[in-house]
Amino acid sequence: MSGSSTQGIKTVLHPVSDLTKAKEVYAALLGMAPQHDGEYYVGFEAEGQHIGLVPNGGPQGMTSPVTYWHVADIEAKLAEVAAAGGTVKEPVHDVGGGRLVATFTDPDGNVLGLLQDH
């Protein structure tokens, strides 16, 4: 293969048990206040990356951080990783604003995410 068919990891979501405390730690780490600050999600935009805090792992039940690889064609990329042995965990779905996400597991059970913005 020549070149990457992804735009790299630009989004990392972290499940947190105490959103208020976690927000303070990440604000100190990043040196800024969050740009998205809600009861169900806190997000920071730092140096081209999005760092999100998800209370109690959110509806997807995250138990560890999930990295999201940004791609141009999420359906094609999900099909490609599934054909290579990945297992679809969350099929492609819209999370608002035209942003599509999906998750899959690698052969060792690690959860990886795909993200496509319209």
Give a description of the structure.
- This protein is an alpha+beta fold and 118 residues long.
- The protein has two helices and eight strands.
- The protein has helices spanning 19-30, 74-83; strands at 9-16, 36-37, 42-46, 49-55, 66-70, 87-94, 100-105, 111-116.
- It has an eight-stranded mixed beta sheet with strand order 2-3-4-1-5-8-7-6, covered by helices on one side.
- A hairpin with a 5-residue loop joins strand 7 (100-105) and strand 8.
- The protein is globular.
- The mean pLDDT is 93.
Compute the average pLDDT: 93
Number of separate helices: 2
Order of helices and strands: EHEEEEHEEE
Q: Give the number of DSSP strands.
A: 8
Biggest beta sheet attributes: 8 strands, mixed
Query: Roughly how many Å is the radius of gyration?
Result: 15 Å
* Beta-strand percent range: 35-45%
Helical content band = 10-25%
Shape, principal axes of CA atoms: globular
Helix/strand class: alpha+beta
Gap between N and C termini: 26 Å
The largest sheet has its strands arranged as 2-3-4-1-5-8-7-6
Q: Which parts are unreliable, with pLDDT below 50 for 5 consecutive residues or more?
A: none
